[in-house]
Amino acid sequence: MGWRSKADKAKRDHRPSLKDWTCDDYAQSFPEYSSRTLNLDNMGYQYFNANGEAFRSCHDTIPKRLDAKKISPTEFHQRYEARLIPSVITNVPNGFDVPPPPPRQSRGSSKFEEKKEERSICLGADAGSSSSSERTSHAWKALERWSLDNLQNDPDLRERTLKCGEDDDGKSIRMKLKHFMRYLKSNSDDSPLYIFDSSFDEDRLAKRLLEDYRVPTYFDEDLFHLVGEKRRPPYRWFLVGPERSGSCVHIDPLATSAWNTLIVGKKRWVLFPPHVPKHVVKGKGLVKRHEDDEAIHYFTFILPRIRKEAISSGGTGKYTNFECYEFTQYEGETVYIPNGWWHAVLNLTHTVGVTQNFCSQRNFDEVWIKTRSGRKKMAYKWLCKLEKEYPHLTRRARELNERDDFVMKYDPKEVTKREEQEKERKRAKKEAKMKSASSSK
Asked: What is the DSSP letter of 247?
């Protein structure tokens, strides 16, 4: 069975009700859309509110554009992550997010020479350049290994099966990478299959992908690691997307934040702040019967209608304080999406990248509140681990539980405490009732 047969079977399993994956002929019209969209980048990042469209310098709007050569992890945490500001960071795969070691000063060297050496390490030969040819010893192997041709011919990966969809029962649909790469380069589907694989680390050969990249230093605090790989929810994905594929609008699970690094291609993003209601973001009432829940429909039809309705409303009703932001992610850029921000992605070209969700101390409150009810057993195990490693976060978690009158199902201390409180409440109520009855005689 060749790659076409494998792809056809995967498509039937993924969307059995769709008989013609090319019915809208987007393969013919998409190049014009992609070119028009990329031309907008010359004017800056796009910002929309109920007053219409504006183009702003990428330094003056959301997402903030940052350079790993110039911003330290501490500065990023304080100025952007703690304030939930989406960002685009350049030069991460080239290794510039890793702080250089302190310069060694030899005898007779001047302070001027020391500073010059440090500047050379931090900024490279040309301080103003962002060329991909500038790399440090911490550069990702993915820069070489993840090109489309290299992936197709990679002896470790080409025979491995990776997830490219789900059937109606939620079961993973998988294809060998060598077959998917042929499909990627040859298909004319309106919304193609998309490798979005979170289990590659369980495969004896595909887990080599973990050697090809490194978690950026801005995001290396991952509190969920305390519960172990088997217990924690899926959190990292290897991505291979044909043009026209993508992910429809969503917020990340359990209030986690995310980072996404692109190695090959161009991705179009749209972001909505947390205060924009779900029914507005989803375009409720604006989706036509023949339109699917696919990224290409969302970007080409539904999103323009949302913006049009926001303008027509004059910023009233459900469009009060409406905002959205659009931008293109290019090769070598890392996008940071804070928890609670709605986002969708459309691949303007064939793309390869990696993304991970994470919980740090700066988004702990929101993640804890979601996890304690969404993953009850894991939340208790997490709380026990936090008590040893981060006791101040354990105290914070219990403060949040007490504030919200939340009882953890698997925490014996809290259950016993709440049972005693309930007994005391009932006893006091009974006494009050008896006292009232006796006084009325």
From this structure: E
- For the beta sheet containing 246-250, the strands, ordered from the edge strand earlier in sequence to the opposite edge, are 52-56, 45-49, 323-329, 267-272, 342-347, 246-250
Is residue 128 within 8 Å of residue 89, measured between CB atoms? no
Q: Which two tokens stand for residue 425?
A: 């409440």
What would the DSSP string read from start to end of 328-388? Answer: EE-TTEEEEE-TT-EEEEEESS-EEEEEEEE--GGGHHHHHHHHHHHSHHHHHHHHHHHHH
Q: Classify 241 as helix, strand or coil.
A: strand
CA distance 196 to 357: 14
**What pTM was estimated for this model as a whole?**
0.87
For residue 154, give the amino acid letter.
D
Nearest to 187 by CA among 33, 8, 353: 8
Length of the chain: 441
Whole-number pLDDT of residue 411: 84
Residue 228's nearest CA partner among 391, 388, 382 is 382
Which residues, in sequence order, are CB contacts of 133 under 8 Å at separation 6+?
none
DSSP3 helix / strand / coil % (the chain, rounded to 5): 45, 20, 40
What tens digit of pLDDT does each residue of 107-120 get? 554 443 433 333 33
Tell me the two tokens of residue 87.
């960002």
Is the pLDDT assigned to residue 337 strictly greater than 60?
A: yes
The closest of 36, 39, 41 to 327, measured between CA atoms, is 41
Q: Which of the two residues, 132 and 240, has the higher pLDDT score?
A: 240
| Residue in this structure with the two tokens 């009432």, named with its chain if needed | 285
DSSP category for residue 302? I
CA-to-CA distance for 328 and 16, rounded, in angstroms? 32
